[in-house]
Each structure stands twice: as C-alpha cells, then as structure tokens.
Design a protein that fits this description.
By secondary structure, the protein is α/β, with parallel strands linked by helices. Helix content is 35%, strand content 14%. The protein has one domain: Rossmann fold (3-Layer(aba) Sandwich). The chain has a five-stranded parallel sheet with strand order 2-1-3-4-5, with helices on both faces. The longest helix has 13 residues. The chain is globular, with a radius of gyration of 13 Å.
Length: 126
C-alpha cells in the first residue's frame, strides 16, 4: 500500500483510546500516522512535548490532526498542550485539522490560523 501522507495526531492523554482509534482508521486508509510517544512509553511531560514538536515540525509531516472530542463535559476540547502543538504546526506551515468542530475559547486563533474542522468525518482529510 502506498503511503498517502504523514499525519501527526495530537490530543489529551485522557483521550488516547480515541486517538488510537483514529490512528488505526488512518493507517488502514494508507496514511503514515504518528501519535505522541508518551502514549506508549513513560516519559516526562517536557520530554514528550519536545519529541512531539519534533514530529510536528519534521519536513516529512504533511498534516497535523487534533483529536478534539468531549472531555469532562466540554465539547470539542483542546487542552493547552494540544493548542501549543497546533500553534507550532501553524508556524511551520503544516495543514491543520480538528477532528470535530472549533473549540470556542480558541475560535479567533484557530480561524485565523486557517484550521479546518472535519466535523467528525475523517473522509474530509485532503
């Protein structure tokens, strides 16, 4: 199977099962998928963040996808680490998607950075 594009997934550690579900779906579609290392290997938050920033800024990375689902009753949640990863992706001119809709507290920035909402449909990745 030909690799379509390289996608780096971002999201809260508490949502890792959903992130693994998205990873499996995308791999089955032919994408190369990178998930945060801390999901599989125990490491400090700082080390994990640096490694994930490296993956986001890697010249082979085409897309950054934030898996923003409901967390603690908050719809389309994007936490501070994920927001930092989105900002890094924007700075390095990566195409950025949200799995679900725009997270209201960050609407101005996300829209200003041309982040694309998939509205829950991974088939809309381009």
């Amino acid at each position: 199977m030909r690799i379509l594009k390289r996608i780096v997934l971002c999201g809260s550690m508490k949502l890792k099962e959903k992130i693994f579900e998205v990873e499996e779906y995308l791999k089955n579609k032919g994408y190369e998928v990178v998930t945060p290392k801390e999901f599989r290997v125990e490491m400090t938050k700082g080390d994990a963040a640096k490694l994930h920033f490296d993956e986001i800024t890697n010249e082979k990375t085409d897309i950054v996808l934030a898996v923003n689902v409901t967390k603690n009753g908050i719809e389309n949640y994007i936490g501070p680490n994920t927001f930092a990863e989105i900002a890094m992706a924007f700075y390095f001119n990566k195409k950025i998607y949200l799995l679900n809709d725009i997270y209201e507290p960050y609407r101005d920035e996300l829209e200003g950075w041309n982040v694309i909402s998939l509205k829950g449909n991974l088939e809309n990745l381009v």
